[in-house]
Amino acid sequence: MPFAYAGSLRPAYEGMDWAAIGIGPPETWSAELDGALRLILSTRFPATLFWGRDGVLLYNEAYVPLIGDKHPAALGTPAAEVFPEIWSAIGPMIRSVRAGEGPTWVEDARLLMRRRGFLEECYFTFSYSPVLDDDGAVLGVLDIAAETTGQVVDQRRLQLLTRLGDGLRDLAGPAELPAAALPLLREDAYDLPEVDLVLMPQAATELVVTDGPGGRHATVPIVGRTPDSTGELRVRLSEHLAPDETYVGFLRLLGDSLSSALTAAEVRWAEHRAALAHRSMSETLQRSLLTEPVQPAGLRIVTRYRPAVHEAKVGGDWYDAFPTASGTTCLVVGDVAGHDGEAAALMGQIRNLLRGIAYALDAPPAAVLTALDRAVRGLSVGTLATALLAVVEPTATGDRLLRWSNAGHPPPLLLAPDGTARLLEHHPELLLGVSPGTRRTDHTAVLPVGSTLLLYTDGLIERRHAGITRGIDWLVRVAGPLAGESLDVLCDQLLADTTGHAEDDIALLAVRAG
User: Fold this and answer.
1) The domain 157-269: what is its CATH number?
2) Largest separation between any pair of C-alpha atoms in the chain
3) What is the CATH number of domain 290-513?
4) Model confidence over 300-335: pLDDT tens digits?
5) Rounded CA separation 15/208 (Å)
6) H-only helix segments in 147-215
């Protein structure tokens, strides 16, 4: 008798009325049926036989968990009666094997099987193989199966959690969470057939599962940095999955993932607001230092400033144009090392010192820079800086006289009305802050009516992987043809031509004698 290996199923096998189900008493069974049944009963792998024309089910102990409460009625019952809900999927495969078309193989097949009182989402990997007699006729179909529901569902949920982690990593603020998360959540229609996410005060604080006319629903709390930063994940649960701890645990993980994303977004938003506040204060500081230039009679002055770090809006470069006590016009460009808030603060100290000294002394530029050098050292300003200070004086001929002194700064550029460009070059002198006793020199040049003087910081002429000489050559070549343009066009075009090349702050001061 083959039932010796049936284990807990042995009483059911021995008590079966085999004649009534069309197979006949066991002592009349063919060698093929006897051998096939002995095979499936002696293996611990889930296995079943669909035997005879009606495909009567004969299976082992390991197969029982796969069919749930279909057992024990399934034993000795035709397969089409046992599996009506999935027969449209498995019936054609069984028939193809019986028709002699060879074995089948299916991996992780999704089947909605009624085995625990509802149509349950199940996954199986299985193979249907023929049981042949000596003449090659198909007597039955052998089914070797493995349930993979746990692995498939776990992998699906893990992938969603991973996509959420990746997709919500860079939210700029908490308000972006619903719009970013919902498309990802709705990709998993099997676990989350209906889902919504709402940010709201006084949201749910515990996960709750409720039954209603529309099915079973869950409310999952989402919590941010503070008790007032809350929301809810609202889910209609799948009717094909049991609301067990595994399912509910997955919903908790979703809530934790969304809570983490909300917290991170709030941190970034707070950092962004702090950065905006810092930027606003920095810009206020910069605007207070880079004031609108004076516009004396007979001169047109235009200024521009562009920081190296766009987000900071501040730096160590500056320009200035102000009147002296005697009524002449002082022009300044300078550069304190660095391009951040600290550089801007140091620049402000030097700028204000220079303004005060120039106005109080009302002396030639070289004397003013010498006094400034002593003040920088004596007052422990603690930085190095380049500066070019110029004074524009009227003449009897109607032209202007430019008198300047240069502390380690790039040379001014003079543009004649006809486009001729000339650098006002002289032997460079030491930066401010190096040696307070440095002897400084005044230089002079005539500014004819219609000519343009351009003062600038080295950010305008510095180029990546190129020397300063090449940058100056570029400035002479490009600025000349712009001599006839307005000062606004001249400055804007020069800045535009440095886009993508400049790595330092740029300050420009353009003066036109008219």
Assistant:
1) 3.30.450.40
2) 137
3) 3.60.40.10
4) 999 999 876 555 556 789 999 999 989 899 999 999
5) 48
6) 149-167, 177-185
